[in-house]
Amino acid sequence: MTQLRVSDPPLFPNRPPLPSGTSVYQNLSTDHYPWTEVNSDLQARQVQGFSGVVDLWQGPRWARYVALPGQPLVGYTTGGQEVSWDAGLQAMPRAQVTVAALPAEQCQLLWNLRGVADAPGRVPWPAGRAQLQAARFTGVLAAGPRVSLWQAGAPVAGEAPAAGDDPVAFMVPVVENRDDILAFWQEVYGRAAQQVPMADLWPLAANTLMNTFPALDPFGMEIVWQGGALNVDPDVTIPELREALAAALQFVLSRGAVRISDLPIGHLRDRAEWAHLEPQPAGRAE
Questions:
Q1: For burial by CB atoms within 10 Å, which of 41, 60, 179, 275 has the most?
Q2: What is the percent of the chain where pLDDT is above 70?
Q3: Quick one: how far is CA 71 from the chain centroid?
Q4: By C-alpha distance, which of 265, 221, 238 is closest to 182?
Q5: DSSP class of residue 173?
Q6: pTM of the prediction?
C-alpha cells in the first residue's frame, strides 16, 4: 500500500482521504500563498456555485470543511466537533490547504462521516466486495492512492482497490427512516406500474419469490400490491422489505420487458436506495 507523504494531512476515522483527480490544489502552503489569496479564491469559487471539500492542517491540528452551492462553509475537526472557518484560520495560521471539487451528494457523504469514532475496518479485496454489498456499505474505501466513495453497497465515484489490496473502510453510521424508505418504494412502484401491468405481474412475482422472501407470501399479506399501492405490515423489518421489494421489482420489470435503467423515476435516481438497484455505468469504480 502506498505510504502517505510527510506533507499529507493526518488520517482519522472521521477524515478519510479523497478520490484522486478531484484536487483543485493540493498541499498549498500558506507560508507561500497568504490567507488573503486563499480566501479570495474560495469566495470567488463559491459565487460560481462551487461544491467540494477544503482541508486545513498544521502539525497535529486539522479541520475539514464542506462547501455546497449557496451555503456557507461548514467544518469539523477531531471528534466531529464543528469548527467555524475563522476559528480554523486562527488555530492554524500557517496551515497547508487542499481544495477538492466534488458533487454535492458526495460532499454530503463525507460530511456524514464527521461523527465517526471507530477505527476504519479492513476489507480484503476483491473478496470483501460481496461483504460491502450485503451490508449496503456507505462511506469511503481507501487503498493507498485508490479511493472510492460508496452508497448503499455500490461504488459511485473514484477508483476501486486493486486485487490483493487490503483497503480500509470508513463507514457512515446507518440511520434509517422507515417512513422515508417506504415512500421511496411507493413512488418507484407507482412509476413502474405506469410501464408494466403491475396488478397482473405482482401475484406471479409473489408466488415465485415467496420461498426466498417470505414477506411476499400472498397468504401472509405482509407485503402486497393492492389498489394501486404497496401495503406493508409494520412488523416487516427494513432489511426484509428492501430485499423483497427489490427482487419483486426486478421480476415484474423483467416480465414486462422493461429495463430497470429505463424507468422514468427522475430525482429518485439520486437516492442511495437506487444506487443499489441499477447496474453501474461504465467508468465508475468497480
A1: 275
A2: 88
A3: 21
A4: 238
A5: P
A6: 0.63
